[in-house]
Amino acid sequence: MKKILFLTTGGTIASSSSEEGLVPSLTSEEILHYLGEHHGDIEITCEDLLRLDSSNMQPEEWQLIARRIAEAKSGYDGIVLSHGTDTMAYTAGALSFMLRNLDIPLIITGSQLPLLHPLSDGVENIRVAFTAVCEDMQGVYVCFNRKIMLATRVVKVRTMNFDAFESVNIEPCGLVDARGLRINRQLLIHPTNAFALEDDLCKEVVLIKLIPGMNPLLFDKLAEMDIRGIVIEAFGAGGINFVRRDLISKLEEIVARGISVVVCSQCLYEYSDFSIYQTGQKVLQHGVIQGYDMTSEACVTKLMWALGKSTDTKEVKRIFETNYVNEITLT
């Protein structure tokens, strides 16, 4: 008999209508009720951890979730976590890094339509999540629209379609078809050390999308705000302008002030490579960190986690350029 913990945090899946629109209201027991008959070989324990729209999910909530999972994990064979879709990719990334070497599966899921809606996708998503959590897996994953995906590779790409999430730059770990749930075990996370809760996060991190004509003085203002980390979505494979508005010199100043800067691509797929163009090589010379093929969500949460572990920019760079949970391809 597998023992599964079902943690709920709110989100669309648990929402009902109010005068001000949808608000999370269903309890974990009520959500489970909508599943009808479930596997007879699992024992499910329900727990309501939060009741939030995921737009209000922030680093403090990530820490609360991580601490509860670390506290409870020894008593369960796996955990299913329900969550709103809007910030699910950020929460999934943060939990992947904070729950180091997690030795049981944590499956995060939700829905595009509330469970109370007769056409909701929530029932199927939760059923697949409970099926996946019974597999011989370890680490953090997202389950959505009959796909199991690495938590650090998911991005929400659609606002209305049930196929809301895609696994970026790596195939899904699992798919449901007429043969049931099929897991590609080569893509799974395989911890090599003992579990450790590493939940210190730096909240002073920002994400900036580069646009033509951006004023370099923006970075001075960020420094005045005591920002410790900046993730920049650059052009293409890693282009940053230095003609007329010299962003590269400004980034050099920012790095010299002890602020860690990560640069990734605005393009959703494939990877950034700053060695290709002159603009990219200039960036590398000034100490910025390459994001390679990481998603913006993974870059942000990993930088928060790295800065929570060290204030030394060289150590932050070393941490960031280490692959922990298949979040980055370093070849």
UniProtKB/TrEMBL annotation:
GO terms for MF: asparaginase activity
InterPro entries for the chain: AsnA_fam, Asp/glu_Ase-like_sf, Asparaginase/glutaminase-like, Asparaginase/glutaminase_AS2, Asparaginase_C, L-asparaginase_C, L-asparaginase_I, L-asparaginase_N
Enzyme's top EC category: hydrolase
PROSITE patterns tied to this protein: ASN_GLN_ASE_2, ASN_GLN_ASE_3
Domain Asparaginase/glutaminase C-terminal: 205-320
GO term, biological process aspect, one: amino acid metabolic process
Residues at which substrate binds: S54, T85, D86
Domain of life of the organism encoding this protein: Bacteria
Domain L-asparaginase N-terminal: 3-186
SMART domains xrefs: Asparaginase
E.C. code: 3.5.1.1
Keywords assigned by UniProt, alphabetized: Hydrolase
Residues forming the catalytic site: T12 (o-isoaspartyl threonine intermediate), T85
Protein name, entry field: asparaginase
Organism: [Clostridium] innocuum 2959
